[in-house]
Amino acid sequence: MFAVPPHKLQESPNSRSIEIYDWFITASTNPISNAPECDALHADLGIPLPEMTFGNNYLTLEHRPSGFSYSFTTPGALNDVKKGELGEGDGGVKVGYADKWLQSRQALFSCLGTNLLSRTALIFATKLYDWTYTTIYPGHQTNDQKTDNDSSSSTISWKPADPEDPSNTIPMAELTRPDPILFYAEIPLFEDELHDNGSSSLLVRI
Predict the structure, then answer these.
(1) Is 131 within 8 Å of 124 (Cβ atoms)?
(2) Neighbours of 192 (CB within 10 A)
(3) Order of all β-strands in the sheet with 186-192
(4) What are phi and psi of 29, to 5 degrees?
């Protein structure tokens, strides 16, 4: 029978953490961002935000001996949304009638004068983005490892997995083993109804 490893759980109104072996994992869930927070994030990203943006939510995994830390955040996820003209294989998504919608708007404004049409075309050109908020965000490293000159540094070296090395594969046997669940969290990052074209949401589970 599998022995439960030593661990320590911590909880507060807006976060849950677990300390297990050399890892410290924190999941923070907070209310939807307020207007000033949304304005600041919009200014940083340059695109309209989803209807429900949880800008202060995050998941962080920290390996304390090496100083390695990896996080999933709302700004990071939205920063990887495709901006500009959508192209083949760039990760963006466009609904089927998007081009017809744009043509109908341009045809409407063409009846109102050339100058207005030019201004409208400029607006569309400067505001193109993937409004389904499809993102290829894989998370990101949030701080540097300790160096060899650091007295508290360990000998652990982090590097990308080698797909040809069997020891780097996902341990499916361990993942399918019915171990007790010591820690679970679901962290929403954003959600949008896509103007009645379905919905788009991103959350992180651990």
Answers:
(1) no
(2) 20
(3) 52-53, 186-192, 200-205
(4) -120, 125
64 Cβ neighbours under 8 A, 6+ residues apart: 22, 23, 24
Beta-bridged to residue 63, according to DSSP, are 23, 68
In angstroms, the Cα distances linking 26 to 18, 183, 187 are 7, 10, 11
Torsion of CA 148, 149, 151, 155, to 10 degrees: 10
Question: What is the spatial distance between Cα 130 and Cα 185, in angstroms, rounded to a whole number?
Answer: 28
* pLDDT averaged per 10 residues in sequence order, the chain, 206 residues: 85 96 96 95 91 96 92 96 72 61 52 48 53 88 59 60 87 86 95 84 95
User: DSSP strand E in 137-185: where?
Assistant: 140-143
130 vs 78: CA distance, rounded Å: 10
Residue 64: what pLDDT?
A: 92
Sign for the CA dihedral angle at 134, 137, 138, 139 comes to negative
CA–CA gap between residue 18 and residue 14 (Å, rounded): 14
pLDDT at 9: 96
Instruction: Give residue 98's pLDDT.
Output: 58
As a whole number of Å, the CA-based R_g of the chain is 22
